[in-house]
Amino acid sequence: MRARIASVLMGLTLAFGLSGAVAVAAENAVKDELVIGITQYPANMHPSIDAMMAKSYVLGFARRPLTVHNQDWELVCMMCTELPTISNGKAKIEELDDGQKGIQMTFSIPENAKWGDGTAITSKDVVFTWEVGKHPLSGVTNFELYDRITKIDVIDDSNFTIHINKLTYDYNALNDFRILPEHLERKVFEADPVEYKNRTLYQTDPTNKGLYFGPYRVSDAVNGSHIALEPNDAWWGAKPKFKRITVRTIENTSALEANLLSGAIDMIAGELGFKIDQGVAFEERHADNYQIIFKPSLVYEHIDFNLDNPILQDEKVRKAMIHALDRQTLTEQLFSGYQPVAHTFVHPLDWIFYDGVASYEHNVEKAATLLDEAGWKDMKDGVRHNAKGEALSLEFMTTAGDRTRERVQQVLQDQWKRLGIEVRIQNQPARVLFGETIIQRKFTALAMYAWLSPPANVPLMMLHSKQIPSKENNYAGENIPGYKSAKMDELIDRLEVELDVTKREELWNEIQSLYAADLPVIPLFYRADMHVLPKWLAGYEPTGHQYPTSLWVENWRGVEAK
Question: For residue 229, with 0-12 CB atoms within 10 Å meaning exposed, 13-18 middle and 19 or more buried, which class applies?
Fold first, then answer.
């Protein structure tokens, strides 16, 4: 009997020992699946319709732009074999009929480039992309780029020449030229160009293999929940290391942290994850268990004024509202010095930054005087009124569930309240705010969000009067405040074609000075991104600008945990 008991005990010991060894081996094994948490779900999956980081991040795994700025902030080819330049002969200045100068550039599509369904990517796709982009009602965000292209000469299936009617200093930066699958999308587009943005296969059939040509393709998409990506068998580049990547949307940042700590997600994307205040607190508690990267980036948090609002058309009201805010104390207390106060849309890391712009110090007395001068003198129940009896009451929107933004919002609301400005908070989920409210300019007064940009980015899309979204242009463009300034238009037009770097710097200074003086927005602060990664992930390199880390996902790999 004792022998039998001893034998059983020995067997149990061996079994537990083996299971423990298996558990350790499994824990140390190189992982081949990755679950990423982000705070927003894409409002529209079409690569050229609606500007939203959530979409750019997801599509970074599954598509590639024609050109892009890399991690070193250098312009490089992604869907071309060599960047056209005047010095290498692939770009040539040409005289236009009106006496102006244009540029022609010859591009070559990478060998063996294919859509996910095996169809070759050809010059036909490039021409179709241009046709969609130049249609005045297609809803493409950067319609200006496509409008400037006068023609595309097809040399053969892999080579084409683009003619542009303006010689700009950044002539070969075609980052927003995002090739579309002609064999799938032409029928949808030609059926109804106005409704194309809603009927594109990127919206109605997002798991169609033929829509993608990156290392991964979208294999599952559940609106508001998650997008799953699997390796694209037709991808011609370096093979990706993970057999599945899932991007989960968790809009509440507290829930995002809880999901990370529970293991439901492996990492939090810096582009759309923790804000700095939450990140600093997280680092203090969990730095030993994760890779944590703080990356200053060209992200500019601000509040758009809707300049169609009669109250906000008054410059004195806008300036009173910024003088009422103690932005310095806010950034110091919430962000521990990681995110400095912004006075212009250009980040100090960018060489074009000008520190001579007007800065609006916290000055409640000055703010009150400006409001009195603007006619908002009568105080009733703590709220200013004008002579008509109208209350100085404004709606304030941002992304619901974003803990940091909501904290900032409440601080600003309180500071305005002390001055007699009533601010009513009315937040929306990111996919609604960015997919409809912002781009269609449906917010009535104030909207807080961020702009991301590449280095030395000409602000045509966000400041030129031709870029105001409207029903007439099917809500293309990104001048969300509705800012109109003939002087700003002129400066931007001159900046684009100025080839002399010294003169260009002077124009940058003028643009930033005018922006600060006219105040179409309230600049808040320059953001830093916090990337939270598992210890076992290698090859990950943040960019610090508009183009997400996911564009280089083929470099990511799992390593053995130690």
Answer: buried
d(CA 529, CA 275) in angstroms, rounded, equals 7
Whether the Cβ atoms of residue 101 and residue 91 lie closer than 8 Å to each other: no
Please answer whether residues 82 and 123 qualify as being in contact, where contact means their C-beta atoms are separated by less than 8 angstroms: no
Greatest Cα-to-Cα distance within the chain, rounded to the nearest angstrom: 106
Which residue ranges form the domains of the chain, and what is each CATH number?
Answer: 77-182 (3.90.76.10), 297-528 (3.10.105.10)
Give CA 393 to chain center in angstroms: 31
Q: At what angle do helices 364-373 and 403-419 cross, to 10 degrees?
A: 60
Using an 8 Å Cβ cutoff, are 109 and 159 in contact? yes
Please check the confidence at residue 557 and state whether its pLDDT lies above 70. yes
Closest CA to 307 of 488, 519, 514, 483: 483
How many CB atoms neighbour CB 225 within 10 A? 11
Averaged pLDDT for residues 360-371? 97
557 has which bridge partners? 538
Where do we find the tokens 């074009």?
A: 352
- 450 Cβ neighbours under 8 A, 6+ residues apart: 299, 300, 301, 302, 527
pLDDT digits (tens, 9 = 90+) for 404-433: 899 999 999 999 999 999 999 999 998 899
Find the distance separating the first CA and the last CA of the chain, reported in whole Å: 44
Helix axes 403-419, 253-262, angle to 10 degrees: 160
CA distance linking residue 237 with residue 469, whole number of Å: 38
Which DSSP helix (H) or strand (E) runs through 105?
strand 101-108
- Tens digit of pLDDT for each residue in 273-315? 988 888 888 998 999 999 999 888 888 999 999 999 999 999 9
